[in-house]
Amino acid sequence: MAFNxxxxxxxxxxxxxxxxxxxxxxxxxxxxxxxxxNPLTLTEVAVELSLLGAGTIVPQAGDVSKTADAAQIxxxxxxxxxxxxxxxxxxxxxxxxxxxxxxEEQWDEVLNTNLKxxxxxxxxxxxxxxxxxxxxxxxxxxxxxxxxNAGQVNYSASKAGMIGLTKSVARELAxxxxxxxxxxxxxxxxxxxxxxxxxxxxxLIKGIPLGTLGQPEDVAQLVLFLSSTKAKYITGQVVNVDxxxxx
Length: 247
Ligand code: NAP
Hints:
Blueprint: E1 7-10, H1 16-27, E2 31-36, H2 39-50, E3 57-61, H3 67-81, E4 86-89, H4 104-131, E5 135-140, H5 144-147, H6 153-173, E6 178-185, H7 191-194, H8 198-206, H9 216-227, E7 238-241
Parallel strand pairs: 1-2, 1-4, 2-3, 4-5, 5-6, 6-7
Helix pairs in contact: 1-9, 3-4, 4-6
């Protein structure tokens, strides 16, 4: 897919879906900057990913919900590579509770990480991408942003917000040859879904036409395609990778 020497930032690249995305780009010989809040884990993951391809893998610790951290991640990337070709806004958290018991803190934490984090990173990469006359931004949203989910008003609002963010930024930056798309995973086997009790998991699977949870690689392959020139005429879209949950 011609990612040789391209520079990719994957937020939340230390595990789960973000790690699988970073691995896919590493295998395509891209330089990949992985972010997360735990510098030790990031460094270990970067060493492992470095074995997969010819690109440099850079661990860059930071909290995307903080404007200064997001700016610093991009600044460090530009200092090392002088460009950013792809940004994948994948960092995300859940703090589940029913509405009546949800605290302001739970609401703020999720909105600040998932939605404001994506905004912070997009803002930081936009000028460098405009200077290089192109780029691709992929926002990892969720089927829950399309369907809603009891017990996740904060998370589903953040993910629905990411869809609005995607479409608006896509319209603003299309004339600069910067494409912006969202990927909406269904239920994917990661730490985030590992805590589901067996009964809830069985119920969930009943609502998935393809009959199983997805794997992080299923999401990574779509992100790779949408970031590549093969998707050069695709912008402002939400593409689901969900075993048919939403159709
Ligand atoms: P995960 O295994 O919990 O990984 C989350 C990643 O985000 C970690 O690398 C984590 O690293 C990082 N992160 C969290 N908060 C951060 C912050 N404030 N700043 C920087 N990095 C941060 O989650 P996942 O299941 O792979 O999910 C990845 C994305 O896909 C999320 O946006 C999630 O909402 C979305 N998604 C997941 C599913 C699913 O079924 N798993 C379905 C739909 C959408 P640190 O903890 O070290 O910071």
